[in-house]
Automatic annotation (TrEMBL):
This is Gamma-interferon-inducible lysosomal thiol reductase. Keywords: Glycoprotein, Secreted, Signal. Belongs to the GILT family. The lineage of its organism: Eukaryota, Sar, Stramenopiles, Ochrophyta, Bolidophyceae. Coiled coil: none annotated. It holds the Pfam family GILT. It is found in: Secreted. Its main location: secreted.
Amino acid sequence: MPPPSPLNIVYVPYGNAQIDMDNKVVTCQHGDTECDLNTYEQCAIDVYPAAADYLPFIACLEGKRSLSRQPAQALADCSAEAGLDFAPVQECHDDEDRAWDLNVKNAGLTPADHQYTPWVELDGELYDDSVDFQTALCTAYTAKGGSSDACKAAIM
């Protein structure tokens, strides 16, 4: 069995949303569609917790220009593209209690001092975007004992 990876990805689909715990309401910077899609992403992570499973789905969604106009089609297309069974994601999304719990969890994972999105941290520190991301990621990864051919090429 291979050793555990020193890389741990925590993707937090929450952005600049605000949560009202008393009234159980989440308000998103870009409106209800953004909140709805955040919940779908949260559910994808909950249903498929391995980053290798959920990241292709989320990357596809984030890359869709028609997302705000045709979210149902984008969700179907991205599920198929990522090879995910969308039914359990939809079931999670439609379960109001589960969806609320996921929003509360993601609100708690969002740093209180974040100023914009995406807010990217490496080893608990804000990513300095003056450094190429692959180089920064590979530097952190190899410092923790990780090794890959892509990282060797990126930091040499």
